[in-house]
Structure formats: structure tokens, C-alpha cells
Design a protein that fits this description.
By secondary structure, chain A is mainly β. Chain A contains no helices and eleven strands. Chain B contains no helices and eleven strands. Classes of the chains: A mainly beta, B mainly beta.
Chain lengths: 114, 117
């Protein structure tokens, strides 16, 4: 089955700096890669996703890159702000069928220091 | 759009009690709902995939008789933790996937914090 690894497990950055979180996956058939942000005690919220036919996607300060050959994808947050502090999860799935399951990475706890 | 409601948000009960958690998609039809368990400072562990009108598919290591899942309609799935014990205490969270095909993100409920005394 699919296995998703994520690094680093914790990350501290100064406000205004960039943060990068990297993930690898094992199932070559995975073709949909969402990223979720979870604040303490709250639900995970989708912040950006990417499909396998795209190498990069950007939404304001957030960008995701995908390398299908190497089976890794990364989240980039620029100009970090204190409200970006949360746990971030990458995930992978075989998107496109009704019964896909999404496998989550172990998470990265991001702290943005004012 | 794409709102998922989960109830209750917090449950405290005695050991041996059965607890039912509801997951509802409020503004879309959910072909599939997923149930996760999350321990403090850990990732979401998929317990089972719930498909409307059919039996749930459980992940390896998850007891079917312990965690009963029902998905009777396109907007409601329930998870019943039967004869709950302290080791079942955890944060349970559901997610729902829209009926349309293609790449559909999962939308999560607010979760249920279950504490068994």
C-alpha cells in the first residue's frame, strides 16, 4: 500500500522567511496530492492540491511542486506569518475513482516566530 | 460550500458504554466518507472507508466489531464505538468526498474528542 513520508517533523522560521516541507510517496499510481493545515484541536483544512499532470501550482504565498519521477512533492510558504503556525500534512491518493483513500504523511509542526 | 458536520464534538462516558458519532455532508452528496483516528501530535490514521449503501472497508488492524460504521444515505455516515474502553479515547474525525468523479478533495468534520473513564 501507499506510504507517505514527510520531513521535517518540526520547523521553526522567522516571520517573513520561507518554509519548505518535503514529502515522498511509494505508490507510483498515486496521482493526487493535497496539503492540509491543522490548527490545534481543529479540523484539517485543504490549503492547496496538485495533480500528477502538473509540475507546480501556486496560490498567493503557497506553492507546491511535484516530481513524479522521483515520487516527491514539496510545499513552499513564502513571507511566513505567525498565523501560518500549525501542523501541515501532505497526502497522496489515486484520485479519480469513487473509493480512493487518502494516505497522510506524519505531519510537520511549523512555528513562525514573530 | 462543502460543509461537513460532525456530532458530538466532545464525549465523556464510562467504560463499557457504546458511543455513536455522526458525520453529515450538509450541502453536497458524499459518495464516500472516511473515518480517521488521531492521537495527540500524530497524523490521521485511516480506520475505514464508508461507501453509501454498502459495507465499510476497514483498514488492517481495525476491529470491525469494535467500530461499527453505517452509511445509509448520501449525506450521513455513523461510527459507533461499541463497549468503549479507556484505550479507545482519541480524536475521531470524518471526511466526505463529493459525488462527482475526478479529483475531489476531502472535506473534514470538526472531529469528536472521545474520553472514556
Amino acid at each position: 500500500g501507499e506510504n507517505v513520508e514527510q520531513h521535517p517533523s518540526t520547523l521553526s522560521v522567522q516571520e517573513g522567511d520561507s518554509a519548505v516541507i518535503k514529502c515522498t510517496y511509494s505508490d507510483s499510481a498515486s496521482n493526487y496530492f493535497p496539503w492540509y493545515k491543522q490548527e490545534l484541536g481543529k479540523r484539517p483544512q485543504l490549503i492547496i492540491d496538485i495533480r500528477s499532470n502538473v509540475g507546480e501550482k501556486k496560490d498567493q504565498r503557497i506553492a507546491v511542486t511535484l516530481n513524479k519521477t522521483a515520487k516527491h512533492f514539496s510545499l513552499h510558504i513564502t513571507e511566513t506569518q505567525p498565523e501560518d503556525s500549525a501542523v501541515y500534512f501532505c497526502a497522496a491518493s489515486r484520485g479519480g475513482t469513487s473509493y480512493d483513500k487518502v494516505i497522510f504523511g506524519p505531519g510537520t509542526s511549523l512555528s513562525v516566530i514573530p | 460550500g462543502a460543509v461537513v458536520s460532525q456530532h458530538p464534538s466532545w464525549v465523556i462516558c464510562k467504560s463499557g458504554t457504546s458511543v455513536k458519532i455522526e458525520c453529515r455532508s450538509l450541502d453536497f452528496q458524499a459518495t464516500t466518507m472516511f473515518w480517521y483516528r488521531q492521537f495527540p501530535k500524530q497524523s490521521l490514521m485511516l480506520m475505514a472507508t464508508s461507501n453509501e449503501g454498502s459495507k465499510a472497508t476497514y483498514e488492517q488492524g481495525v476491529e470491525k466489531d469494535k467500530f461499527l460504521i453505517n452509511h445509509a444515505s448520501l449525506t450521513l455516515s455513523t461510527l459507533t464505538v461499541t463497549s468503549a474502553h479507556p484505550e479507545d479515547s482519541s480524536f475521531y474525525i470524518c471526511s466526505a468526498e463529493a459525488r462527482q468523479g475526478g479529483f475531489q478533495p476531502q472535506h473534514f468534520g470538526d472531529g469528536t474528542r472521545l474520553s472514556i473513564l
